[in-house]
Amino acid sequence: MTKLFRYLKKYWLAIALAIAFVVIQCWGQLTLPDLMSDIVNGIPAASMSNDLSELYRTGGKMLAVSGVIAVVTILATLFAARTAAGFAKDLRQALFEKVENYSLHEFDTIGTASLITRTTNDVMQLQQLVVMGMRMMMMAPIMCIWGIIKAIESAPQLTWILAVIIAALLVVVWIVASKTIPVFQILQKKLDRLNLVMREKLTGIRVIRAFNKQSYEKKRFDESNQDLTDTAVRVNRTVAILMPAVMIGMNLATVAIMWFGSKGIDTMGLELGTLMAFVQYAMQVMFAIIACAMIFVMLPRALASAKRVNEVLDMETEIKDPDVKSDAEMKRGFVEFKNVSFQYPGAEEPTLRDISFRTEPGQVTAIIGGTGSGKSTILNLILRFYDVTQGQVSVNGVDVRQLSQECLRAQISYVPQKQILFSGTVSDNIRNGQLDATEEEIRHAAVVAQADGFISEMENGYASPIAQGGTNVSGGQRQRLAVARALVRKAPVYLFDDTFSALDFKTESKLRAALFEETKESAVIIVGQRVSSIMNADQILVLDDGCVVGLGTHKELMDTCEVYREIVESQLSQDEIA
Ligand SMILES: Nc1ncnc2c1ncn2[C@@H]1O[C@H](COP(=O)(O)OP(=O)(O)OP(=O)(O)O)[C@@H](O)[C@H]1O
């Protein structure tokens, strides 16, 4: 938690003022019983002398003190709320920026659902802690200690009653805290689980409906929801007992003070006003102890949240920018793999073994192979989503580990296997590839990607809205928009991961022809499943279980590579092969 205090530094003035106001509030609340005691003790003398001016004066002071209490309470609450809101905003920002730099492995380690809970719910818990810290955590100990001192000063004869009351209260608080603290810590984990189920349900809604899995998913959600509810009810039930138990205790304590105090009036010369003040001090002390109990109950939950937030902030990103970035002159359109082997973190076996190939400007390299043979992994390594286990990947002549990630990715235009579009217009989505692209460049990219036709048919053309995830366009249209987004970047290296699979043959061949006109000075790497899509490539890399089993043109591979020949024969007729 202390690590997170650095986010409070810039609010030091607001915190100092809030603390000052809280101290003034404590002073006010402990002064009122004094003044009340003066009034009550002064009544006999005033009635004898028939002079009530002193009583009025003391009453006036009470009103003034109450006014001061009201003002400082409002100010302290305001400062605490503003500081906590600012702290939460800064923390969310820090989390977002940290997560942006995560490699895919760190995403997998914490999990997307948990990252969302940590950025929202956990930060909210910490925000509440800051409010509580600036108000209750300051006030409770001050009130408690100051109240005890004042009570003892006013009626030392009754000190023993106060000691008994405090001891009894501490026992109740200890029992409640020991039952609730462990359960509060479990609550956040259950919330994570609920978020995970909810997220999967929403993103996979089409599959769930298509497979009629609504009732199964409802059951899964109900289970998580019920689990969270049961835990929350269990913890709140215990907390709920605390208040009535303490209220009963406080009323009994008041009766006890009155009982023994009234005897003191008879035997120990205790004044009535002093006894009344003592009751109020005792009340303030008891309230302060309850506030301390609430803090002890809430603190572990907030600390659990702090731990979860710190886990995200402290996570060492595996993919780091080099301390000394390469200033080697970048050549355009080169990608080279030198004896690259790669194993996913936590995987038992390497996914790629001893891969070597190179591409040159204007050259189209295709990668083909069975599912799971490692085709997408090759693209992941070029983009440095992961670091190689052995060997070297270089882009435009420089080892990718010697470039800043920003510089590396600025060299590359990538169309992933699963195309993602963002909410906004068609134009916005294409512009995501190059933020300063002109309307003309956007239109040109769409024409090359064979997307201009269907965009023009849309009601608002390039200004037509795209739904979140691109759900209001077809799979083939989504692919073409993703290609246009990549093309508008005019990068030295293009990576297409199974990008044309949803297009019909005619559209695909038109797209390929237009595309290769555009990428004459760039390296183009296409991962493909369809032989017809890749057979005209300048070189074809055939992967089998993470190893290169063939590298050459279609014609060369037909003569030399058994695996390639099998793939071709399974897809093309004898006439087409001939
Ligand atoms: N993040 C990951 N963690 C661990 N293993 C992974 C990860 N991503 C992929 N793999 C494994 O690496 C292997 C290669 O995956 P990759 O996605 O590169 O295959 P692919 O040839 O592109 O397959 P497809 O044609 O089906 O897309 C697979 O066995 C897969 O299970």
UniProtKB/TrEMBL annotation:
SMART domains: AAA. Its main location: membrane. GO terms for molecular function: ABC-type oligopeptide transporter activity; ATP binding; ATP hydrolysis activity. InterPro entries: AAA+_ATPase, ABC1_TM_dom, ABC1_TM_sf, ABC_transporter-like_ATP-bd, ABC_transporter-like_CS, P-loop_NTPase, Type_1_exporter. GO terms for cellular component: plasma membrane. PROSITE patterns: ABC_TM1F, ABC_TRANSPORTER_1, ABC_TRANSPORTER_2. It is a multi-pass membrane protein. PANTHER family: ATP-BINDING CASSETTE SUB-FAMILY B MEMBER 10, MITOCHONDRIAL, ATP-DEPENDENT PERMEASE MDL1, MITOCHONDRIAL. This is ABC transporter ATP-binding protein. It comes from Bianquea renquensis.
